[in-house]
Amino acid sequence: MIYIVIPVFNRKEFTRKCLYSLQEQTFTDFKTIIVDDGSTDGTDKMLEEEFPEVIRLETPGNLFWTASTNVGVEYALKQNPSVIMTLNNDVVAEPDFMEKMVYWSKREPNSLLGAFDVDYDTKKPFFGGEITDWKWATAIQLLEVLPEEDWNGIHEVTHYPARGLWIPVEVFKKIGLFEEKTLPHYYADFEFTYRAARKGYKIYCNYDAVLYTFPDESGNHQIRKNKKTFRNFYKHLFDIKGGGNLRNFTIITFRHCPPVYMPLYLANGYARRMLGYWIKKQW
């Protein structure tokens, strides 16, 4: 059995769209867990009335993404699943999304598979994986180097976000859960997949499994779209939802960057995060 874990805090309408897209899947042998971290917008009533098949776990409202996801993962592990998929609530899955994940998982049974992200509004590809180049302190975006005719099948990457991540259960048993103590919100998914890769698991972007996303709804984008002030600059670099969070970046670097490349990688990363805020570019 496959379990899908979705942490939520309010944003009921996004959750509704996401769950309806899961109801329309051509492959249906899965169960969905919603970890409701203190929602106050009627999410609980909506789930009860419209999605009675969904398992709802209630948490107190102070967990953020990582701990909420771990609550769902721990519950799922007790049900003896074969696979756990982590999913964000602000996504809409193509009807054959799960079918395409199952298809490629049978060909790469011990690998992690990430979804291919397409912007819900523009219908343009948004994210297709990246490869970290520790030596040159850069990340290669596959969408920028892959010819469009190759936007299909699976392509190996070095890490992946968890907004649609297929994880064989043996991975959790071997490397543990997401790191909630030091990475309570952002970067925990990257750290998890880096950790899995170091243990020998391959990570792929599955270009056949499409998720429609809402890029403007991320916590980082909400901070970045506000007026550029030193207060918002500080939030960008240090807030728990700041995409340029220097603490998180430093933790990832010390845990996974080869020591010989670490000075350059840190220097380049700090500069990109600080300067990137002012030149209106996401890093």
Fold and architecture overview:
By secondary structure, this protein is of the alpha/beta class. Helices cover 39% and strands 24% of the residues. It has two domains: 2-216, Spore Coat Polysaccharide Biosynthesis Protein SpsA, Chain A, CATH 3.90.550; 220-278, no CATH class. It contains eleven helices and twelve strands.
Q: Could you write a compact summary of the structure shown?
A:
This protein is of the alpha/beta class and 283 residues long. Helices cover 39% and strands 24% of the residues.
Strand content: 15-25%
CATH class category label of the largest domain:
Alpha Beta
Task: Report, as a whole number of angstroms, the end-to-end distance.
Answer: 37 Å
Number of strands: 12
The CATH H-level superfamily of the largest domain is Spore Coat Polysaccharide Biosynthesis Protein SpsA, Chain A
Q: Which CATH-level-2 architecture of the largest domain?
A: Alpha-Beta Complex
Count of DSSP H/I helices: 11
Detail the poorly predicted runs: 219-224
Fill in the keyword field for this structure.
283 residues, alpha/beta, Spore Coat Polysaccharide Biosynthesis Protein SpsA, Chain A, 2 domains, 10-stranded mixed beta sheet, two-stranded antiparallel sheet, 12 strands, 39% helix, globular
Secondary-structure blueprint:
Elements: E1 2-8, H1 12-23, E2 30-37, H2 43-50, E3 55-59, H3 64-77, E4 83-87, E5 91-93, H4 97-107, E6 112-119, E7 125-127, E8 130-133, E9 138-141, H5 142-145, E10 154-157, E11 164-168, H6 169-175, H7 188-198, E12 203-213, H8 219-225, H9 230-238, H10 246-256, H11 262-278
Parallel strand pairs: 1-2, 1-4, 2-3, 6-12
Antiparallel strand pairs: 4-11, 5-12, 6-7, 6-11, 8-9, 10-12
Helix pairs in contact: 10-11
